[in-house]
Amino acid sequence: MGFKLGSKSMNELVGVHPDLVAVTRRAIELTVQDFAVHDGIRTLAEQKRLVASGASQTLDSRHITGHAVDLVPVVNGKLRWEWDPIYMIADAVRIAAKELGIPLRWGGAWDVKFTDSEDSPEDLVQDYGARRRQAGKKAFIDGPHFELPKEKYPA
Ligand SMILES: [Zn+2]
C-alpha cells in the first residue's frame, strides 16, 4: 500500500530486537491500515508508571528487554486505539511474521500462538475474552501489542 514508518516510529525501534524490527518493517509495507510504533523499548521507570496508571499489568514487560512493540493505527494523522484498524494491522503483522518465519505473541489473545493461528484477529479476541470469562478472570486485551515469545527469545 506504500505506507512508511515515520521518524518517531524509527526512533521507537532503536534497541528493539532485530527480528521484531524486521516484522514491523515488513508489516508497514503490507498493511492496508497505516500505523505508528507507539512504544518499543521502555525503561523500568516508565513501566512502573504504566502499571501505576493501570495501562499495563506487569513489571515483567517484554518492552523492557526490547522484545515488544505497540503498533497503533494512524487515522487522518492521529493515533487511534480503535478495533477495526487494529485488526487490519494485526492481519498485516501476522502475514509479515509468517513470511519471515518469526513467531509472535499478540496482546489481543495472549494465550494463542498468534503466528500459527488461522482465525481472524477479531475472532481470536472474542474467543480469548470468552475463555477468560469462563475461567472467571478478567481479559486484559492489548490489540496494538506484539511480542517475541519468551520460549524462543529469552530475555
Ligand atoms: Zn505493549
TrEMBL record:
Peptidase M15C domain location: 56-112
Alphabetical list of Gene3D superfamilies matching this protein: 3.30.1380.10
GO function term, MF aspect, one: peptidase activity
InterPro entries, A to Z: Peptidase_M15C (IPR039561), Zn_M74/Hedgehog-like (IPR009045)
Top-rank lineage group of the source organism: Bacteria
Residues passing through the membrane, by range: none
Signal peptide: none
Protein name (database record): M15 family metallopeptidase
Natural source organism: Candidatus Propionivibrio dominans
